[in-house]
Design brief:
single chain; alpha/beta; two-stranded antiparallel ribbon; 10 helices; 8 strands
């Protein structure tokens, strides 16, 4: 059987509240990680599911988050990063680690410095910058000067949604152009996208 190497999940705060974290659970199970819950029902740590038990390769994930999700769920964003870090530490030559290195190489080939490319290769959460909301695409499609196949829409999406987050916080020192390049590289290495 063929398995995707990476899934993109679009996360919205309202949807997360409505379905109680189903999309986040899908991200964790794709990575092959399960939460260990505390008495209050919060995940206190993460446990890797052995590949033999998983029955398939680990699948990398990329999260595209809304501004309201960023504001309300930084702990869930950090939990995903913790899951990715655990997988990479346990399997440094596995698919998740290889994906991070491939994206870093692509960014370096585009002229980005090595340290920043490696950091952005590790990112798995992108969204609006702090204080910004929405993609702007909905308003842009109503523009009279929009062409049928207009690359400006894709660039607008990458610019508006290209703020990287690690451990639930905004990655400092990344300008809009670098963030857009990083998000574009991550999306090019993705096989499917899911929206709840």
């Amino acid at each position: 059987d063929a398995w995707p190497e990476r899934l993109v999940l679009s996360l919205w705060a309202g949807e997360t509240l409505r379905h109680h974290g189903v999309m986040e659970a899908q991200a964790m199970i794709a990575l092959g990680v399960r939460p260990v819950w505390d008495d209050a029902g919060r995940p206190r740590e993460l446990q890797l599911i052995p590949v033999s038990e998983l029955g398939r390769p680990r699948i990398d994930v990329l999260l595209s988050i809304t501004g309201s999700y960023r504001d309300q769920f930084p702990t869930l964003m950090a939990l995903l990063d913790k899951a990715v870090s655990q997988v990479v530490a346990d399997e440094p030559e596995g698919g998740i680690a290889r994906s991070s290195r491939a994206i870093a190489r692509e960014l370096q080939a585009q002229g980005m410095g090595r340290e920043q490319a490696q950091r952005l290769g590790r990112v798995r959460v992108f969204g609006n910058a702090i204080g910004d909301y929405g993609t702007g695409v909905a308003d842009a499609v109503l523009s009279d000067n929009l062409r049928q196949r207009d690359d400006r829409l894709g660039q607008m999406f990458l610019q508006r949604m290209g703020q990287p987050y690690l451990d639930g916080v905004s990655v400092n020192g990344v300008d809009r152009a670098a963030g857009a390049k990083a998000l574009g590289a991550h999306l090019r290495h993705s096989d499917a996208a899911l929206l709840s």
